[in-house]
Amino acid sequence: MGGAVVVCLVLLALLAPVIAPWDPNRPDIKKILDGPSNAHPLGTDQLGRDVLSRMLYGARVSLAVGFVSVGIASLIGVVLGSLAGYNGGLVDGATMRLVDLMLVFPRFFLLLAVLAFLRPSIWTIMAVIGLTGWMGVARLVRAEFLALKEREFVIWSQAVGASGFRIVWRHILPNAMAPVLVAMTLGIPAAILTESGLSFLGLGVQPPHATWGNILNEGKDAIEIGWWLSLYPGLAILVTVLSYNLLGEGIRDALDPRLRQNAARFVSRAR
Amino acid sequence: MLGYALRRLLLALPLLLGITFVSFTVIHLAPGEPAEIQTGDLSIQSDAQARQLLREMYDLDKPLHVQYGKWLARLGRLDFGKSFSPDGRPVLQKIGERLPVTLLLNIIEMLIIVALAVPIGVLSATRQYSLFDKVTTVFVFVGFATPDFWLALLLMILFGVQLGWLPISGLRSLNWEYLSFWRQQWDFLGHLALPILVATFGGLAGFSRYMRQSMLEVVRQDYIQSARAKGLAEPIVIGKHALRNALLPIVTILGLSLPGLIGGSVIVESIFAIPGMGQLMVQAVFERDYPVIMGNLVIVSTLTLVANLVADVTYSFVDPRIRVGARRGRR
């Protein structure tokens, strides 16, 4: 079920220009902070812009930030994790200390500190979320490598003289990707939450670009009048994050039959 | 015990140095020329000024190793410089005022989370697949997915605006000074209610899940079987033998989740206008108050490091297996 919702969300985001009933950035001074109506199903904001259309365009930002930042994080995580796991020794020690170090920083403080020095734009947000989110993947990949490099097929490839890169790329990595896939699926909703949090504070994607986070930010200013500004974008975030999490758990269960049998039985039934 | 603590302390020292290095790198993210900043930035005028101050303060015109050495020396003296904002007060003083608020909030949250998550986790693990277990599982998934700032907004609308029961910003009412002592405490609690509710919600979901998982693993162990076999009553088996062992990993997770909790206070504090570290950080970022930003970053991460260390040592204290393992050279 998580998967179906995710597909729907991606489609809605891609088709935003076609299905959005209004121009997301067109203000209408006659309709400032109108409640939900037939013309504007989810109401309008302080400038009279249609909230539904803004949310559809906001979905694009959220999903794009989710995909790109997780892509960056996974790339760094896989590269560092493979290096550490395959080489062991000093490389391993150094990489894992780097992971420990990055985990000591409360992520939001680090994100804010970095963003304070940079110009806020969707690209910097993606990059910064990606660069501060690779530690989990690195640890996972390293653990997989440590287990896999002792296996016969790897020792055999080493015996016939395959290069280190070839062994890692062709033999170990494909076998280590399953948990990475799960981590990526679970990383996307985390990135979406982070981005919307930053945008909510006004330090993420800047207006007039609509994102779920900055619509909520406007909602905060109109808290006494416009509950619809606060309710719907948050609901969209909740549904998106929830369905990605369910999808991630689903993939994990499918890849790990041992888990499916006991602990996760109820979770899959609830889905 | 002491040896283990010392060894952990030694391992933490390079991390401390690492913190200073990462923070030093962050300073250098600033674009070099004032001209670059003039497009699309928040405030043009103050930014060019800030750049100048930044250059003087962190000796940005000197070679890198000299800069880093000076940066280290300053941190060693706990000198974070003076705030760029008009009051121009020392950064350390500003942070010192706000640190207790954030610490107080986080400690209260932590206590509530543990007090609630442990029974919830134990109950849902011992009654696996029961209605209670199913309801908590749904709660866990929703809890994970709920943006805290959204929850905060909804609660503010419900309790603050619609019902008018609770104050929605600050720590004290305007008429605080004129209230009696007990009235003051009541007022303070009222102000804390919503922020703490919001901050506990997400953490509770995660913790009750871990607790459930940990309990499920423990009840499968042989020693639980033997406890049952020798005829102990089920409440004693669960409450004494199982619970003690199931609580062990929670100590570590408590330490590991600390950065998340502290990070979360950024959002909670800014929404509810609570004068803590998180709110200070957000204000500083808007005002491009670089010394305050750097001071916050260094202090918050150092605190997290210390808390992790305490969690590690506590863990070895409550679980002798770790200490013995470490002595044998395993980690």
What does this structure look like?
The complex is a heterodimer of chains A (271) and B (331). Chain A is mainly α. Chain A has 13 helices and no strands. The C terminus of chain A is likely disordered. With 331 residues, chain B is mainly α. Chain B has 2 domains: 75 residues, no CATH class; 234 residues, MetI-like fold (Orthogonal Bundle). In chain B, 77% of the residues lie in helices and 0% in strands. Chain B is built from 14 helices and no strands. In chain B, helix 6 packs across helix 8. Chain B is globular and about 75 Å long. The two termini of chain B are 14 Å apart. Chains A and B meet through helix 4, helix 5, helix 9, helix 10 and helix 11 of A and helix 1, helix 6, helix 7, helix 11 and helix 12 of B.
User: With helices defined by DSSP (H or I, 4 residues minimum), what is the helix count of chain A?
Assistant: 13
For the sheet with most strands of chain B, the description reads: none
Q: Quaternary status of these chains?
A: heterodimer
**How many distinct beta strands of chain B?**
0
Distance between the termini of chain A: 6 Å
**Helical coverage of chain B, percent range:** over 70%
Straight-line N-to-C gap of chain B: 14 Å
Overall spatial form of chain A: elongated
